[in-house]
Amino acid sequence: MESEIVENLDIHNSFGLSEILRKHIQQQPLTTEESEKLNQWLAASERNQQIFASLGNEDELASTLKRLYRTDTRAQLDIVNRRIAQSLKARKRSYWLPIAASLTIIFGISLWVYTHKQPAVSEEIALTSIHGEDILPGTDKATLTLSTGKTITLDEAKSGIINTANGLAYEDGSQLGAVEAAPYATLSTPIGGQYKVTLPDGTAVWMNAESSLEYPTKFGDDQRRVVLRGEAYFEVQHDTAKPFIVQTHGQQIRVLGTTFNVKAYANEQRTTTTLLTGLVKINTEGNKEEGSSIQSVTLHPGHQATKLNGRLTVDEVVPTYAIAWKDGEFVFRNESLTNVMKQLQRWYEFNVDYDSLPQLHFTGGIKRDVSLSEVLQMLEQTSTVRFQIKNKRVSIISS
Question: Are the beta carbons of 114 and 61 closer than 8 angstroms?
Answer without folding.
Answer: no
